[in-house]
Amino acid sequence: MTIGEKFTAAFITEDRWQLYLKGLGITVEIALFAAIIGLVLGTVLALMKLSTTRNGKPSLVNYIATAYVDIIRGTPSVLQLLIMWFIVLKSSNNGVLVASLSFGLNSAAYVSEIVRGGILAVDNGQMEAGRSLGLTKAMTMRYIVLPQAMKNIIPPMGNEFITLLKETAIVGYVSLNDLTRAANLIQSRTYEAFMPLIGAAVIYFAVIKVLTLLLGVMERRLRRSDNR
Amino acid sequence: MKKLLAAVLTGVMCASLLTACGGSAPAASASTEAASVAAAGSESAPAEAAADSVLNKDTLIVGTNAAFPPFEYAGADGTPDGFDIALIKAVGEKIGKNIEVKDMEFDSLVASIGNKIDVAIAGMTVTDERKNMVDFSDPYYEAVQNVIVVKGSEISTADDLKGKNIGVQLGTTGDFIASDVEGAQVSQYNKGVDAVNDLLNGRVDCVILDTNPAKEFVSQHADELTALEGDGFGFETENYAIAMPKGDAALVEAVNGALKELKEDGTFDALVAEYINNGEVPEAEEASEEASTEAASEESSEAASTEAASTEAE
């Protein structure tokens, strides 16, 4: 087959380009829901991991959060997905939901460490200042520490979202037709690997490039007030 | 500083290029090792084989997908085992080659022939599309797709499949059939057993798989599942064959010769009995295989023709 024929077989015959588009839709959908779950749950976990009892010892919620992060980070995400699909949510028919939840719970563990790092990077004096001005611990955290932590966590958070988007490539294991699976599917029809695989890779790259640009814009906006 | 950086980057690129080009080196060293082992008994490369023929190698790398019992499955020690594996090893013995089996995804087998693997044996059905990419040996087994359903399911004819959610293994004949069913939603799994699990979980309405693996999977859940014969759905009988690189006539000839010999000396039937019929040798079954594999040749017993008629009726 010539390059042209390979291209036609991989993208045009039987409107196969639609498979890539649909696959991309599924990939983005899963990654988006997972990112939301990861962000919310991850922030909660980070606060749990920072919580202490009155005399400065780690609290019970701290232990719970630490155990959760340990377990999630200590097991491969593909196993977590299979466990979620075949065991935990085996009665659910909504593949995207199962995958989003699985990746979201996974991402939360990593996000929690990013957020915790960001909070710890804010000088302790900020908390002390807030407290001595009469704010409660929660208020200081919410109005003074977290906004400053936000700026620190944007670059690693972008990293996490990009990893998350690419990690969804394993949902083919549970018969979801994401972008990678679309490429596999077309390869199984045309028996030709180059075009579908390179094509999918280019699409992933383009999407992540756009995401990177957006993150860059956001980061610059947040840094604007740094130049005093 | 910049110069240093440039030097380091150049070094890294060179290293990566070297490793990329060296990809074939392990295979080469493996085959030389194998050569020293095989050299004792075997001859030098056959004279009639073309320069680029796989026959010039001492070790055939055979691709399979060990998730297709009883033809191939992970054996007790984790390496692929099953009818196909035993058959290709017997073929290797006949043509004086070592056999190295590689387990991989079924959907990438055909694309891997000629680069990652030399031949593929994986209960692979001969189709025109595949013939565009590879050459096939003479068929060695005849099968038809089965439809696995939960007991008491309403699915019993081809019409019942319309609009249903059908589970299949990616890139198999069942996948192609299901993809052509009107309004059906097809869930492609990496392994047939995953599809069967999701049938048990209620995520798909039925699973289309080849006869023998289907029966194997159903036998493990005999209370809940049942396998319906494909002729009720109008599925055509298909032939399994060994896939080989396109245009390697010498190899095809050698493999076909070996298959023929194995059938004549009874090895083939012994393997069928051992792997597929679990030690028993039911007359009709065996005859049907012979009919399928030697349909072109002169032999055809009455038993074979009646059996063939019953599978191909409707």
N/C terminus separation of chain A: 62 Å
Architecture of the largest domain in chain B, CATH level 2?
3-Layer(aba) Sandwich
Strand order of the largest sheet of chain B: 11-10-12-9-13
Major sheet details of chain B? 5 strands, mixed
Low-confidence stretches of chain B: 20-47, 281-314
Q: And the CATH topology of the largest domain in chain B?
A: D-Maltodextrin-Binding Protein, domain 2
Number of domains of chain A: 1
If helices are DSSP runs of H or I spanning 4 or more residues, what is the number of helices of chain B?
A: 12
pLDDT averaged residue by residue of chain A: 92
> How many individual domains of chain B?
2
Overall pLDDT of chain B, averaged?
80
If you consult CATH, what is the topology of chain A? MetI-like fold
Question: Can you write the helix and strand succession of chain A as a string?
Answer: HHHHHHHHH
Q: For this entry, what is the oligomeric state of its chains?
A: heterodimer
SS class of chain B: alpha/beta
Reading off the top of the CATH hierarchy, the class of chain A is best stated as Mainly Alpha
Tell me what the structure shows.
The complex is a heterodimer of chains A (228) and B (314). Chain A is mostly helical. Chain A has one domain: Orthogonal Bundle (MetI-like fold), CATH 1.10.3720.10. Chain A is built from nine helices and no strands. Chain A has helices at residues 3-12, 17-50, 60-73, 77-88, 95-121, 124-132, 137-167, 179-190, 194-223. In chain A, helix 4 crosses helix 5 and helix 7 (137-167) runs antiparallel to helix 9 (194-223). The longest helix of chain A has 34 residues, at 17-50. Chain A starts with a helix and ends in a 5-residue tail after the last helix. The model of chain A has no long low-confidence stretch (mean pLDDT 92). Chain B has two domains: 50-142 and 240-279 and 287-294, Periplasmic binding protein-like II (D-Maltodextrin-Binding Protein, domain 2, 3-Layer(aba) Sandwich), CATH 3.40.190.10; 145-236, D-Maltodextrin-Binding Protein, domain 2. Helices cover 42% and strands 18% of the residues of chain B. By secondary structure, chain B is an alpha/beta fold. In chain B, strand 3 and strand 4 form a beta hairpin. Chain B has helices at residues 2-21, 25-39, 83-95, 109-112, 128-133, 173-179, 192-200, 211-220, 249-264, 267-276, 283-293, 302-312; strands at 59-64, 67-68, 72-74, 80-81, 98-103, 119-120, 134-136, 141-143, 145-150, 165-169, 185-189, 206-210, 225-228, 238-240, 243-245. Mean pLDDT of chain B is 80; it is low at 20-47 and 281-314. The interface between A and B is medium-sized, with 18 and 26 residues.
